[in-house]
Specification:
This protein is mostly helical. It has helices at residues 3-16, 21-33, 37-50, 55-67, 71-88, 91-103, 148-156, 159-175, 183-196.
Length: 200
């Protein structure tokens, strides 16, 4: 499926259900990938209207606003997003938004170290740091599926974040109506999974 076809498919899903967070996020991402930041911005704004805690959407909205020449709006978006990402322990979007603020010669918010809540799943593991939350574990006991991506998840993602993805992955399949026997649908699913787990 080409990029333009993907844009049309996501646009149709977003128009069908204005409250479909995944469809709007996917549409914005596709438009940004296509070099159309001015069009991508409203999609990420819609994502944040549905879910104001989506730190990745703040990051991509900020990038869209920079691409469209809206520096002041981008600084406001990235500053808010940085604080939310810190509060949630979303370290990768937080780091990227900090870099973008520095590139814009804007102050990076002063916050304490993020302390992700790893819950009561089990003990932390020395030398291990989850790619998504920055916590020390517990690690997955075995790879979730075969192949290099399964190995990477085993090595870099904690048990808590993987459980969160399993719940979110079901939502992705249902909301985007992905027929998982289709290689294109599998590719879309994997893209969302890698973004959620900060492996992209």
């Amino acid at each position: 499926m080409g990029l333009e076809e993907r844009i049309q498919q996501m646009r149709q899903l977003a128009e069908t259900d204005p409250n479909d967070e995944m469809a709007h996020f996917s549409l914005g991402s596709a438009l940004l990938d296509a070099g159309r930041p001015a069009e991508a911005g409203p999609s990420f704004q819609r994502v944040l209207a549905i879910n104001s805690q989506n730190s990745k959407a703040y990051q991509l909205l900020g990038e869209s606003q920079i691409g469209a020449g809206h520096r002041d709006l981008a600084i406001q978006t990235l500053t808010n997003g940085y604080r939310i990402a810190h509060r949630k322990g979303d370290l990768m979007p937080m780091k990227r938004m900090g870099e973008l603020l520095e590139e814009l010669d804007a102050p990076v918010p002063s916050v304490g170290m993020a302390k992700p809540d790893v819950g009561t799943l089990g003990p932390t593991v020395a030398g291990f740091s989850c790619r998504r939350c920055g916590g020390g574990g517990p690690k997955l006991k075995e790879r979730p599926f075969k192949g290099p991506l399964g190995e990477r998840i085993l090595a870099e993602v904690c048990e808590g974040c993987w459980k969160e993805w399993v719940a979110m992955g079901t939502k992705v399949i249902n909301e985007l109506r992905l027929p998982m026997f289709d290689p294109v649908a599998q590719e879309t699913y994997d893209k969302h999974m890698k973004e959620f787990l900060m492996l992209a």
